[in-house]
Amino acid sequence: MTRVFLDIETLPPDEERLKTLDPKRVRRLLKKRKGTGDDCEGCTEEEIRSLSLHAEYGRVLSIAVIVEQDDGSILHRGVLGRDRETRLFHCDEPRVLRAFWALLATFDVSRDVIVGHNVFWDLKFLRKRSLVNRIRPSVHLTFARYRCQPIYDTQQEWCTWDYGAYITLDDLADVLGVGFGKTEGMHGSRVYDEYRAGNHERIAEYNLRDVELVRAIYYRLVAPEAEVVGPEAEAIAAAPAGR
User: Fold this and answer.
1) pTM of the model
2) From edge to edge, which strands make up the β-sheet containing 151-153?
3) Across all residues in the chain, what is the average pLDDT?
């Protein structure tokens, strides 16, 4: 059995794509009330930022991944999307997606599992962006509810698939006593600003830390009697954050 822990970070469309966007289509996608923003010739800053959550126009910046074998050995730990030499995000979305699907080339849906917090959203985003970029996913995933294999969603498992129930990754980590915190001052809504400010290392650290958090939470959920779960905090801090 192979376990794949993942978390993605996304951005709004790039400048070239923004030039071709039809604001009316964007507002329909965002389900804005009729008349809201109709007097604007282009998309507002708020609308542009919101598109980072919609795979129709948003794009994948990075994918933090830990691939672990059944015996606990780590096959891969890192953040896809950065240049090996400069450690900066290259923003070549097809390249990021191909690297991700290559990691899953031997994934067996009858045996292996993908784990994440609200991971259904991440996987649907990756699937849609792959189709937009004419990339064939190496794994065919179905998104059936009320199952924990081959997709294990820590949010849904904690909330027992209660319709409308929601808990953040941070809050669940606090409830379960998973001890290592997140990158100071960082959260998902800050990624776009940090990217524009050139703080690529900060984003990568935040992205990978989320995956480490997901991994520790997963083991608390599937093995609640275990006292030690996941890597030690020092090992997490020292883990490489790039590929």
Assistant:
1) 0.88
2) 74-80, 59-69, 2-11, 113-116, 151-153
3) 88
